[in-house]
Design goal:
Elements: H1 2-21, H2 31-48, H3 71-80, H4 94-104
Length: 128
């Protein structure tokens, strides 16, 4: 009976290990993307990340599909802003703006099944 429990425990470990191995691996960031991530978290995350789990964010969720999926357009939006977002060309250098865009190009888009909306206004906030 004890052998059966040990065999069951070993089988459970192998099954769980297989499930973990099938999860997507995090993207390895290069030096530029790491700088972009740091700048994004410091300056952009205030609006583009939810303040706490389950809370609405103030601005759209950003991903590699933002600004039409074009890194040049992303740099333009970051530098010059939009009607609802300030520009950062006097805050960041051109290289820093490019680093933020490079980081954003590593973020997969949100699933189509779970669009982000502004809970208080009810309008879709996921596109520029």
């Amino acid at each position: 009976m004890r052998d059966l429990r040990v065999a069951s425990a070993i089988a459970a470990v192998f099954v769980a290990g297989g499930a973990v191995a099938q999860q997507p691996q995090p993207v390895k960031l290069d030096e530029t993307q790491t700088l972009g991530r740091s700048l994004f978290l410091q300056s952009c995350g205030v609006c583009h990340l939810p303040p706490q789990l389950g809370a609405p964010r103030y601005a759209p969720r950003l991903s590699r599909d933002s600004a039409g999926g074009n890194a040049n357009n992303m740099r333009e939006v970051i530098a010059n802003g939009t009607p609802r977002m300030p520009g950062f060309k006097s805050t960041f250098t051109t290289d820093q703006i490019a680093a933020i865009a490079a980081f954003l190009m590593t973020i997969p888009p949100a699933s189509a099944a779970a669009p982000t909306t502004d809970a208080t206004r009810g309008d879709k906030r996921d596109d520029y």
